[in-house]
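Teaching assistant's notes for section 4

Start the section by putting this record on the projector. Ask students to predict, before seeing the second block, whether ATP-binding cassette domain-containing protein will look compact or extended. Collect guesses on the board.
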Amino acid sequence: MFKIPNLTLVQREPILQAASYTFQEGQIYLLQAENGSGKTTFLRSLVNLVPKKSRIISFGQVPCSQVKAKVFYFESSDWFNPNLSGKDYLQFIQQQWWSPIPLDPETQRRQMQDYYKLPIKKYSLGMKQKLLIDLYRVSGAQYLLMDEINNGSDQASREILYQQLIDLAQEGKLIIIASHYQDEIKIIVSQALSLKRLQLQED
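Reveal the predicted structure now:
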């Protein structure tokens, strides 16, 4: 589990005010909020990419030195360096997150074996999304924070993704996902949360 105690987020306008919540492992949480209301900012705050006013966000009993290996967040395929290959990224994530998960089964499962050695500048948006999904899997992280992970994927690819999310949750992973495909993804989530609900939740 991980706890958010008294989290306050302010950008142009207040997003959260003294919000507290405890997320449980083995669950898939869907963040619900209007576009532009702070879902991405909230996810960024959990990995210290934006300023926040809060006590320490606690990831279970994990020492601070080991938190990196437990949490994975890659906001968008826009973050990819176009001159690197999918293989470069998969190897980097595997090494930096000290993951024992092998690469080849992942590329075969996502049908990336024909292009994952090519530079990303040659990838379509759908190909980039397949790579992005595999980064989460290869990381081996316990806590997975996903922002529009299914954006740009066709219906068949989204269905594969939803089954993968179910499998990951059954492995004990804790998943928080923000998605425009809320009607589709609601059928697999453990709980749908609005930012307003986080504000009302008692620690």
